[in-house]
Amino acid sequence: MRHARLAITSGEPAGIGPDLIVQLAQQHWPMQWVVLGDPLLLVQRAEQLNLPLEILPYETDAPEHIAQPGQLHVLQIHLRQPTQPGLLNPANADYVIEMITRATQGCLDKEFSALITGPVHKGIINEAGLKFSGHTELLAELSQTKQVVMMLATPGLRVALATTHLPLAQVPKAITSSLLEKVMRITYQALEQDFAIEKPRLFVAGLNPHAGEDGHMGREEIDIIQPVIEQLQTEGMDIRGCYPADTLFTPNKLQQADAILAMYHDQGLPVLKHLGFGNAVNITLGLPFIRTSVDHGTALELAGTGKADTGSFHYAIQVAQEMLEAQRERA
User: Fold this and answer.
1) From CA 247, how far away is CA 197, in angstroms rounded?
2) How far apart are CA 152 and CA 42, in angstroms?
3) Between 276 and which of 187, 238, 280, 290 could a Cys-Cys bridge form, CB atoms 3.0 to 4.6 Å apart?
4) How far apart are CA 71 and CA 80, in angstroms?
5) pLDDT greater than 70 at residue 2
């Protein structure tokens, strides 16, 4: 894709993020990558994987240049301490946050066309004393975006979440009319603009078993979720529900929907990951730029072994490219 410069953060340095980037750099890509990370780390990981790698320094004002297989443009950010595959070090937590922060600013400044993030380890970042609940929340904070939506997608299924990284006990109080209206609007608009779907169909899950069973197992569907759906339907949006989650993810329903809105993290994502693990992507909707990510963690035990599967990272780059193309077609 011409005139596109993608920022790619290499993630937790002890995990498989650097491995995946080195592996994917062995093929040709039709747009410029700019990898944020420590060049020495990438070179060391390439040596461990027995793969060729030439580091090309990234210059902000330089003309766009597409690297050849075996080359990487790297925006240099230094590790705080040397790292070994599989061994977490809280001293490098700030390095991870710096990568995300610099890439985000580059997207806001239009230096980069989109952001693809490698996997990070939330536990070690928090252990280092840095407040971090996930990429989604940090990117919203850095871009001063009041409301974002986490969506995971795999071929044949897109699942957006009304709430993300919350303890299950806190979910019912978080499901408010105001939140749902914002989430549904953002999701519906993204389906139109970012996925080039002319008349999207968004199906909404209920919160309770059997979608509350007419109020006998909870009233959130009657009092909160359904009224928001009906309000947006009057504006011409094809939003349907709310459906019992145990029957919503059936082939018949999925064939009719362009996306599913689940009420909480583990209501929708187990189904999606069962269907497409290793070939799924995490997308943050509502940001002023495109952001995609892998659907898996740091896989510390695989770092440096050459056994890490590049499928999800490859798909994250592919989806970012498709979203850019959809936006340009609508421009």
Assistant:
1) 25
2) 28
3) 280
4) 24
5) no
- Quote the CA–CA distance of 116 and 209 in Å, as a whole number: 36
Which residue from 93, 64, 59, 84 is spatially nearest to 74, judged by alpha carbons? 59
Rounded to 5 degrees, what are φ and ψ at 284? -100, 115
Q: How far is CA 219 from CA 32, 176, 211, in A?
A: 51, 12, 9
pLDDT, position 64: 79
Burial of 1 (0-12, 13-18, 19+ CB in 10 A): middle
Distance CA 277, CA 195 (A): 21
Q: What is the pLDDT of residue 3?
A: 66
Q: Which residue has the tokens 């007419």?
A: 214
77 has a pLDDT exceeding 90? yes
CA distance 229 to 257: 15
- What is the rounded CA–CA span in Å between residue 87 and residue 171? 34
Return the CA Rg of the chain: 20
Q: Please give the structure tokens belonging to residue 241.
A: 């529900």
| Residue, of 3 and 131, whose pLDDT is higher | 131
What is residue 95's three-state secondary structure? helix
C-alpha 38/C-alpha 69 separation (Å) is 19
DSSP structure string for 131-187: --S-HHHHHHHHTT-S--EEEEEETTEEEEESS-S--GGGHHHH--HHHHHHHHHHH
Task: Provide the pLDDT for residue 30.
Answer: 87
Q: Give the chain's mean pLDDT.
A: 94
